Amino acid sequence: MKTSESLLSISKFIAEYSAHLMGAGVHTSRVVRNSKRIGDAFGVDVKLSVFHKNIILTIIDPEINEACNEVVDIPSHPISFEHNSELSTLSWEALDNKMSLEELTAKFYTIINAPKIHPLFVLILVGFANASFCKLFGGDLCSMGIVFSATITGFFLKQQMQKKKINHYVTFIVSAFVASLCASTALIFDTTSEIAMATSVLYLVPGVPLINGVIDVVEGYVLTGFARLTEASLLIVSIAIGLSFTLLMVKNSLI
């Protein structure tokens, strides 16, 4: 039989687990399913109210007829599909293998504290990805090279601004401006300059928040879904503002 102390420990773990999933870019229904699955492993009923910035969690133990409430803030983590997959797998392991809370907690921290991909490697891959978008939209080799260098410059600036905890809307505006300004060097050459400038900011498009927002709305989590869609829309507006500054400076006819 569980005690009040053990019930509190379970609630604190599930609260931290669900908050980490939300912060790492998981849609709401998956967070709820995973959290309830862990609750089932410990024989408790889990109730979650998920908002954009925090989670209200209630754990009910029918054996001892007690309940425990937790309110936890959702931290801001880099989007990680690897974390999402491994933490979802962890919820199944907890249910199938009847893991103890200590084992579950140890494995949880092993997953979230695992070494991350080196920022320089991410920087190079993002540069190649954006150059590929340039080719996909009809850009030539010269434009691809310019987009690659512009993307690396803008994304490196974004990484540094995020390290300094600068407001993410300001970060997106400045990153879009710098990347598009670097890409504007394509105007000097006989190349597809419009495509180069347009694709130089595509690395900033918030695809995951947009997709998660739509999924949340469709699955009935309307409040969280619209909050995510609103934030993603504001980020897109920030990208447009940064790109507009460049166009006003170097090529007014494009506006």
Rg measurement, Å: 22 Å
Helix content: 55-70%
Query: Which structural class do you get from the secondary structure elements?
Result: mainly alpha
Shape: elongated
Report the average pLDDT across residues.
Answer: 89
- State the strand order across the main sheet: 1-2-3
Report strand %. Answer: 5-15%
Which parts are unreliable, with pLDDT below 50 for 5 consecutive residues or more? none
First CA to last CA: what distance?
69 Å
Number of helices: 10
Order of helices and strands: HHEEEHHHHHHHH
Q: How would a textbook summarize the main sheet?
A: 3 strands, antiparallel
Number of domains in the coordinates?
2
Please tally the β strands and state the result: 3
Give an overview in words:
It is a multi-pass membrane protein. It is found in: Cell membrane. InterPro entries: ThrE-like_N (IPR010619), ThrE_Dicarb/AminoAcid_Exp (IPR050539). Belongs to the ThrE exporter (TC 2.A.79) family. GO terms for molecular function: transmembrane transporter activity. Helix 1 (4-23) runs antiparallel to helix 2. This protein is mainly alpha-helical and 255 residues long. 37% of the residues are buried. The chain has a 3-stranded antiparallel beta sheet with strand order 1-2-3. It folds into 2 domains: 4-113, no CATH class; 119-253, no CATH class. It is 66% helix and 9% strand. It has 10 helices and 3 strands, in the order H-H-E-E-E-H-H-H-H-H-H-H-H.
